[in-house]
Amino acid sequence: MTKRLLVVDDEESIVTLLTFNLEKEGYEVVTASDGVTALELAQTQGFDLAILDLMIPEMDGLEVCKQMRQNHVLTPILMLTAKDDEFDKVLGLELGADDYMTKPFSPREVVARVRAILRRVGHTQQAPVPEKPKTTTFTFGDVTIYPENFEVLLKNEPLELTPKEFELLLYLATYKGKVLTRDQLLNAVWNYEFVGDTRIVDVHISHLREKIEPNTRKPIYIKTIRGLGYKLEEPKRDE
């Protein structure tokens, strides 16, 4: 099935360049030049991935990203920014973006990044095939992960995670009880060197804790191993 991508940028030359290169790779591309239109499209049409520029008119990319997540649109978001500003990058990730790239960039790099995201995440909005059994589940405490269905339950209630949060939690669960460094998590979940920016891992760990931990100040599932990284544990009975 052809993957549908939403490309949002107010620079016509960039939209044309990205559209040409993405369509050449077999993707279907829908475009928007402002944030209001982008948000409407994201909420009313199904996309496999959104490429979202930070500085767009009417509603900037950060606000579009924020509202998409608030409205439970979990489409993976690749944020584009001309600003080489760490605050903007981290804020975008905190609001729910899955990845970011700084302008200028090469079309080949964007295509490679898109391909990597889609390969890892898959189409999370696609319904699972009923005949296909769940081959593996991961359970710890009140949390259960069904990888085949891209589904996580907390106390038997569906938990809404972004694609990147899901991947990170699944990887931690796969190696439950083992200490994983930030670099290991970065390379495993993001699948490439992220310029050593391990803060991205910390941001997503923080989001996961907010969603699964009874008390984020005293986490019982995702433990910080000072100076090393993180470890997912089975909670103790008295926790």
Structure summarized in a few sentences:
The protein has helices at 12-24, 35-44, 61-70, 86-94, 107-121, 163-174, 182-190, 199-212; strands at 4-8, 28-32, 49-53, 77-81, 99-102, 138-140, 143-146, 151-154, 157-158, 180-181, 222-225, 229-232. It has 239 residues and is an alpha/beta fold.
Short descriptors:
12 strands; 2 domains; Arc Repressor Mutant, subunit A; 239 residues; elongated; 38% helix; 5-stranded parallel sheet; alpha/beta; single chain; Rossmann fold
Query: For the residues shown, what is the average pLDDT?
Result: 84
Q: Helical segment tally?
A: 8
Strand order of the largest sheet: 2-1-3-4-5
> How much β-strand is present in the residues?
15-25%
The CATH topology of the largest domain, please?
A: Rossmann fold
Radius of gyration: 18 Å
Topology pattern, helix = H, strand = E: EHEHEHEHEHEEEEHEHHEE
Residue ranges: pLDDT <50 for 5 or more in a row? 123-135
How are the SSEs placed, and which strands pair?
Blueprint: E1 4-8, H1 12-24, E2 28-32, H2 35-44, E3 49-53, H3 61-70, E4 77-81, H4 86-94, E5 99-102, H5 107-121, E6 138-140, E7 143-146, E8 151-154, E9 157-158, H6 163-174, E10 180-181, H7 182-190, H8 199-212, E11 222-225, E12 229-232
